[in-house]
């Protein structure tokens, strides 16, 4: 039979308290806008999704 001595090592740590909410909406992580790199990645993703969508109808 297995002993219960090592069980405390296997239990996960308690979850942290939920973040404070204001009207069921949590606060934003950051209020900074997108960077130039973010905008570039978005444009590249738009192109990829556009061509994938178009390829469905060929």
From TrEMBL:
<protein>
    <submittedName>
        <fullName>Uncharacterized protein</fullName>
    </submittedName>
</protein>
<feature type="region of interest" description="Disordered">
    <location>
        <begin position="1"/>
        <end position="40"/>
    </location>
</feature>
């Amino acid at each position: 039979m297995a002993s219960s001595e090592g069980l405390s090592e296997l239990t996960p740590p308690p979850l942290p308290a939920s973040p404070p909410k204001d009207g069921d909406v949590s606060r934003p992580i950051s209020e900074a806008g997108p960077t130039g790199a973010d905008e570039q990645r978005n444009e590249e993703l738009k192109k990829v999704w556009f061509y994938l969508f178009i390829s469905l109808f060929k």
